[in-house]
Amino acid sequence: MTARIWLLGIAVFLIGVVKVQAQSISPTRLEIDIEQSPRAVLTISSTKSVDVALELSASAYFPLVQEQAIPLEVSPPQLLLQAGETRQVVVSWVGREKLPKSVSYYLAIDELALEVGDASERAEIRLLTSWRLPVHIEAGGLPEVDFTPPDIDGSASLELTNTGEKYALLSNYQVTFDSGGELQVFDGLQFARLINRDAILPGQTVSVPLRLIGIGAEGLQGAQLVRKE
User: Fold this and answer.
1) Is domain 5-138 annotated with CATH 3.40.850.10?
2) What is the DSSP string of the chain?
């Protein structure tokens, strides 16, 4: 009997190029302005010495109360990457209704198990990797982010609310505050990593627990939200 142990890993989805297990994906966030073009192109490369099978599908940005059709088309939905090969995937918006505000989804890229190599290679532990890339569909409008610092009476988190019509990328913002006479900066990318999401969607509020930041409520009094230039 051939022994096989398959492990699953999830890569972080932030700006840049993800390189996991000698594979790269670029970009790691898709932004589609449907007034300009209803599609975006993703480039996937592999430098592994064996073939890699990938399955691609769209999913909701947040869990849905009831199942709904997702108006994104992924082509091709499956890939077999040979060693050193680079392929492109097209993600298209196929919704027919006019959007009053932006909508967001995830593109799931899951590595599938393949029987490769001789018996000794098949008996080794292999890591199967899964990526979740944000897909934001823009329909005009701008983000409007309001910032609520924690109350000194014991609030356990600070809050960011998007009252605009477009998703607000956390990486575009930073929170500044005074600490002992020195200006301190808490970057939005740090918020994104702490709450495991890249954006605040229209009409939504995100709360960042102070215990994750490592700063008490007193230290954040007078803090301000600043949009990066």
Assistant:
1) no
2) ----EEEEEEE---SS-EEETTEEEE-SSEEEETTT-SEEEEEEEE--SS-EEEEEEEEESS--SS-----EEEESSEEEEPTT-EEEEEEEE---SPPSS-EEEEEEEEEEP---S-HHHHTSEEEEEEEEEEEEEE-S----EEEEPPPTTT--EEEEEE-SSS-EEGGGEEEEEEETTEEEEEEHHHHHHHHT-SEE-TT-EEEEEHHHHT--TGGGTT-EEEE--
